[in-house]
Amino acid sequence: MTAPPVDCLRPTPTLPAHGPPVGAAVLKERPEDFRVTEIPLVAPDGMGEHLLLEIRKRDLTTAEAGRRLARYLGCRVRDVSHAGLKDRRGVTRQWLSVHGPGLDVPPPGPVDDALEILQAARHRRKLRVGALAGNRFTIRLREVDAAVAAVDRRLAVLARRGVPNYFGAQRFGRQGDNLAEALAWQRGEGRPPPRQLQGLLLSAVRAEAFNRALRRRIELDCWDRAIDGDQMILDGRGSLFSASREPPEGLAHRLALQSIHPTGPLAGTGRPLVDGEAQRLEDVALAGMEELLALLERRRVRAARRALRLPVGAMGWWRPGPGELELGFTLSPGAYATTVLAECFEWRDPAV
What we know:
Elements: E1 23-26, E2 34-40, E3 50-58, H1 62-73, E4 80-82, E5 91-99, E6 109-112, E7 115-123, E8 132-146, H2 148-161, E9 163-164, H3 178-187, H4 195-219, E10 231-234, E11 240-242, H5 248-256, E12 260-266, H6 276-285, H7 290-298, E13 304-307, E14 309-310, E15 313-318, E16 325-331, H8 337-341, E17 345-348
Parallel strand pairs: 1-17, 2-5
Antiparallel strand pairs: 1-8, 2-8, 3-5, 3-7, 4-5, 6-7, 8-16, 9-14, 10-11, 10-12, 12-13, 15-16
């Protein structure tokens, strides 16, 4: 069985790795049901021409929060930077930086009814995308229809073994049409997309290629173990090494500890980073994507690798009321909480 061809121009459906969902639930009925706290890599150093601000936003995209903050501070929108994009529907604490040598440090307090400054101080450097240690999620599910024992067993498995590191649906656009737009761009149909959209379309193509390769490995039951020709990645560090450089028993032990993970393709230019069985598997998974992959080549997007497995840190859960389940866990940067939920529930988002 192989992934569906890209000709349909819709994102490939994800496949759970731990068996069918054990029940159903409603996600994000209210913004407060989806709470995210960014775990920063740096703290303000107290001097410099940048401001580093921790904000709390409710039912706002990170981009809209940046625009409102720029208006409030009297600076340009392009002077506001973030470490990570966060979902609109939810309550998020995250860090932004503002290049403003002449700006006063704002006191803590509300910017408006959806945005609040929690703390601010001067800092020497601009905040770069990816400059965070991870995110802590607290998620309340409502209308939970599942056996308590089955949920407990599944969540315990996720905490012990991790989950597939799929890119979430957000990566493919609100209507899931980023792949179709990317293909039209590659074919020269219509006007080229605006510059600010081009990066999103390229990211969607890479996400589709990765998700296809990951789904194929789940079908073959090798998504969390090494195969011939694999490139492995150190958890939390991004360093790659060939699986052939370590004895199988050593690899198996480190995989069980989740200190290393097999990787999948972030497609682009450059020589293949895998060979043997791993390369053959990815070639099969990506068959039908040739035109979209050519767009990455044309735009000189450099190939890289991403962990196929996502550890779920500090997992805990409790039941605050009838039909409710609250989950708490920590994920690495760039990971999606919905990939964790999909391994346990068929969930419905009323806001979509």
